Amino acid sequence: MKFHLCSVMAAAGLISAMSACNTGGTRTLESPDGNVKIEFNLTKQGEPTYDAMYKGKTIVGESKLGFEAQGLPSLTEGFKVVGISMGSEDETWAPVWGESDSIRNNYNSMTIKMRKNADSVEVLMGVEFRAYDDGIAFRYVFPEQETKQFVITDELSQFAMTGDHTAWWIPGDYDTQEYEYVKSPLSEIRSLNTDDKLGNVSQTGFSPTGVQTSLMLKTADSLYLNIHEAALVDFPAMHLNLDDSTMVFTSWLTPSPDGTKAVIKTPFKTPWRVVMVSDKATDILATQIIYNLNEPCAIDDTSWIKPVKFMGVWWEMITGKSEWSYTNAENFDLATFDYSKAKPHGKHGANNENVKRYIDFAAENGMDQLLIEGWNVGWEDWFGKEKDYVFDFVTPYPDFDIAMLNEYAHSKGIKLMMHHETSGSIPNYERHMDRAYDLMNQYGYNAVKSGYVGPILPKGRYHYGQAEVNHYLDAVKKAAEKKIMVDAHEAVRPTGLARTYPNLLANESAMGTEYQSMSPGHVTILPFTRLKGGPMDFTPGIFKMDLSTFAPNNHNKKRATIANQLALYVTMYSPLQMAADFPEHYAEKADAFQFIKDVPVDWSESHYLDAEPGEFIIVARRQKNGDSWYVGGVTNENAREVTVPLSFLAPDTQYEATFYTDAADTDCDTNPETYVIKKETVTSASAPVIKMARGGGFAISIVPKK
């Protein structure tokens, strides 16, 4: 551990040097292993800047820091350093659920305290840096001061790239992350950033060179970088805007309706800005830096928070086999409409008979819960209407007996999962939230899937603005009070807050299975990007790829193989995993469905064996508090042969491995539903060679022999 300039080592490991650091100059911070270095500099004009290096190579060039604030001189210059505090941390903490039993949080830190005097106004602002072995992070600190409130009009944090890196990106957007990722040099973002709506109901781009985080990058000398944010609390989500003449990204905050970005009250700390780095792609997948930058668990009793494997009456509606709504109503108004006199249209999926059929299958096959969408009144008049009052979240349709179905599910040993679609009307959801959660408690629901489809209301607001970020977290906090777990869809993408509030089991916040014909490479990118902030409810496990065979008006074909769908339960970590297809499709291929039944949703340790973003991922995980292992591999549009060393297994132990692989003739486009299942004895010395078809993959369950 090395510190320079205004640094004095104290016995407790805390470094403080206040009075001697009131001028410009460079301050340096290194990671515990010395490979990562951050340099802070205050220019002659009083401009705070930083740069960063990894193993002697610059990964972030000189980059400016600061803000613009309403009614104040620019907070990007004219500063003086008035103090520096430095320190270190090396702790190990246990997540409530996760990819491993424990996570090490090891970093060195440096906080620069600055003062600016202009126009008779004194502004105090600090920048706190942390250097980890696998990345850097910084956040702004506004201590208590005479100015009690700042209205932020722009954050101007820069990330100066050192070249025209390869990037895996999605367009900058205030309302959605439901895009396929584009792979391109940074210089081509402008030409490739289109206005393709992709069926999104709400979509608001802001710049031809704007992109979203988590942004995955690879340099010409094979360093892997990832830019994201952590601990997004009471602040708008950060996007990145590229100056493609200089290859400098600048933070771009989601605005409020008046064009300002955030209102902060001192004392205040912003979310962390993070750059992950390694010369191995697998290290980017494995890093826990985002979680480590969040606060410890805020829930005293977490015994009720359990990972969930579930099925759902959902894929029927997505594919068009059935519908969320109950009747074909015209001139619909929920406050006056009489469902008892309505004529059913006959395609309502969430009816008693159909739900009981799903309950039976889910219970027989060891599932924990069953999600039922379309159970509640209001679906006749919600999609894209921008109406304040669409759902009341407590009134079931006439053909959904909420008391009977919950009693039936509980008698079979499973729970029903609640669904709250807000249609983007946050005021309406907030008015009804207490009653909706109380109804869940009344009937024994302990998990809710919430949705925010459509433009946010009140009009002029966006999904990722400060007020909306606060709402999503408030909903999670209130759910925790009621001992309810949350799966939030269309909310802001996660930034590690599940460490603090582990009842937030998952988010969507990316293009998932509902986009039925996405490219095979999408699932080889998501773990490098969207999943860096937290688990995703991706809804894998589709077995019938030609959707027209059961939904005649749907001509989509899912571009994946069955082995690929099995592998996703391992390669895309989540404590909330859905078996998304129909019971009858699983019954037809019960031997392949066995893997979905067996695979855990919580783990004691995980090993990323090999990976390349956009190409392939191979992961091995050991079940929570057990000795069985599960391995998954997925590939993009290219077939490939891979060697999978099993050196993670316990030595001198024999295991029975069940391989679920693509067949010789499997292809994601022409023959996606063929597969091979075989059993072999393996040890830690084994290294099976496995072929993955185009859009394919493999899954292995490995159980110690008795």
How would you describe this protein?
With 706 residues, the chain is of the alpha+beta class. The protein contains eleven helices and 37 strands. The strands form seven sheets. Strands 1, 7, 8, 9, 10, 13, 14, 16, 17, 21 and 22 form an eleven-stranded antiparallel β-sheet that branches. A hairpin with a 5-residue loop joins strand 3 and strand 4. The longest helix has 18 residues. The protein is globular, with a radius of gyration of 26 Å. The N terminus is likely disordered.
Write the layout of secondary structure elements.
Layout: E1 15-17, E2 25-30, E3 36-42, E4 48-54, E5 57-64, E6 67-69, E7 79-93, E8 103-118, E9 121-132, E10 135-142, E11 149-155, E12 158-160, E13 166-169, E14 182-185, H1 189-192, E15 210-212, E16 215-218, E17 224-230, E18 238-243, E19 248-253, E20 262-265, E21 268-269, E22 272-278, H2 281-286, H3 289-292, E23 308-313, H4 315-319, H5 352-364, E24 369-372, H6 402-411, E25 415-421, H7 426-443, E26 447-451, H8 466-481, E27 485-488, E28 504-507, H9 562-571, E29 576-578, H10 583-588, H11 590-598, E30 603-612, E31 616-623, E32 629-635, E33 640-643, E34 655-662, E35 675-682, E36 689-692, E37 697-704
Parallel strand pairs: 23-24, 23-29, 24-25, 25-26, 26-27, 27-28
Antiparallel strand pairs: 1-7, 2-3, 3-4, 4-5, 6-11, 7-8, 8-9, 9-10, 10-21, 10-22, 11-20, 12-19, 13-14, 13-16, 15-18, 16-17, 17-22, 18-19, 30-31, 31-32, 32-37, 33-36, 34-35, 34-37
